Amino acid sequence: MFANVLDRLGNWNPQLFRELKGRLNRRYVYSTIAISAILQFLIVAVNSDYECVSRFDVGASGCREGYWSIEWTTIVQAIAWIFPIALISIGVYQLVADFTKEESRGTLNFIRLSPRSSQTILNGKLLGVPSLIYFGTLLAFPLFFVAAIGGGVPLTWVGGFTMLMGAGCYLIYTSALLNTLLAQTPYLAIASSFLGLWLGSFYINAILSFFDFRKLTYRQLDWQWFSFDLGHRPLLAFLWAIVTVGVANYWVWQALNRRFRNPHGTLLSKKQSYGLVGSFQVWLLGLTWPALAEMGANWIPDLLGFMAVVSTINLVLFLAVIAGISPGRQALFDWARYVKDTGGSLDGGDRPVSKWHELVWGEKSPALVAIALNLAIFAAIWSVAVSMSGVEVTAKLQAIAGLGTSVVLIWIYAAIAQIALLIKSSKAGHWALGTVATAILLPPTLLGLLFGSVATQPHTLWMASVFGSYWLILQEASIASIVSGFVAQLAIALSLHFTLSRQLNRAGVSESKPLLTGK
Q1: Which CA distances in Å does 185 have to 78, 112, 259?
Q2: What is the rounded distance in angstroms from the CA atom of residue 152 to the CA atom of residue 72?
Q3: If you compute the radius of gyration of the chain from its CA atoms, what whole number of angstroms results?
Q4: Boundary-marking domain end, from 251, 282, 317
Q5: How confident is the model over 193-225, as pLDDT tens digits?
Q6: Which tens digit of pLDDT belongs to each residue from 42-59?
Q7: pTM for the whole thing?
Q8: Which residues form the domain of 483?
Q9: pLDDT value at residue 185
Q10: Is the distance from CB of 505 to CB of 339 less than 8 angstroms?
Q11: Which spans are transmembrane here (predicted)?
Q12: What whole-number distance in Å separates Cα of residue 12 and Cα of residue 24?
């Protein structure tokens, strides 16, 4: 019967069959059963005690009548911690180690060439490699349910916790695999396992903290998303959490699937980047909207501080987007050659398409127009949100102007990264990372050493080169300093744009000459 099941799996997903066949032997299965049983026995033993009701004689050690007292709710919490932590840390280690081994042997490229889709292969890995950990965890479910019933924990909480843990494990697993495809470094499996353990601990703690195991009720929290009162409605909170983790899974999966299918391509398409940025802005706005909506007319410092935090969070997002959609040197050169020869690019076949269409949607075109559109999405959503707050009009205009300075600086970082990717080096990605990090960290370091804190002169230099400085110097800086700083940012952005255009035009000419001369 078991052989028939494996045969059916082989027809459905050969990669899953390959992984299970190498792992589900008797020795490994029996060892997994023994370890899971021992862990469950220890959990029950530690949380059980024999209570004596009556003894044979006063002061005697013998017990005539008694009963076992079991702390069921403590057992539920112990299982909810121990098995998911093992599932995350050991599962991540196994997946990363397996991918690293396949890469070092060269078999990963062979797997890529199989007729099966990349989704089938990746799902086979995700389901098959940690299969013994899945099996050991499933063996603990009967005790988990019995303990929940014995302790009075609602089965709806058990079901919700199980679903959230499944979605969270999948997110951590796919993120670990994506990181493995991006960076092959020594001891990556161990490092990823510890990172997964750390992230998993925060995730599990966040889920468990929502339920009071002493009172056996859901905690009442001050937590809203837009006008939805998540803190007092457990079902809404669960739906919000599962949708949030599900959307995060979707975007990580898109990047993982594209990277596995084409190791030299971008992590996301430009079209996908618009969806990622838009969905993240809506999610973040929903979390922060209650704080923004309650601001009064004179809450100017609060609004500026609020927008400083929002801008910083989005800086991190956009650095990831820049890395995810910026094409490499060869892709840019191919695009530049087609632009030079046809006045546009090629859309899959021989049909020319417009240059602007390629800049907005194309896989090989520079990312700067797409980054600008993503920044426009960010600025538009938060400008509308700020305008709907209760702060006075002058403060709203100041906050919207601050968004403008943040947008231009992020675009400058994108241009620097794209220019760095044109370097003829196998480590062009590292060069791009280093130059962008230098552009972010070096200006505040130098200005701090030369002039002291951000509140000191010259405000123009701070605004033009240091991200987030606008929010700190607004109340001290003159209008002339603010305007001149913004103009300086635009000048830097234009110079970088012309530099990139010149290099691409030069590349298009140099790449086209051999084709035109027949050499």
Answers
A1: 34, 21, 17
A2: 8
A3: 29
A4: 251
A5: 999 999 999 999 999 999 999 999 999 988 999
A6: 999 999 887 676 665 555
A7: 0.90
A8: 264-517
A9: 74
A10: no
A11: 28-46, 75-96, 126-149, 155-173, 185-211, 231-253, 274-292, 304-325, 367-388, 400-423, 430-451, 471-496
A12: 18
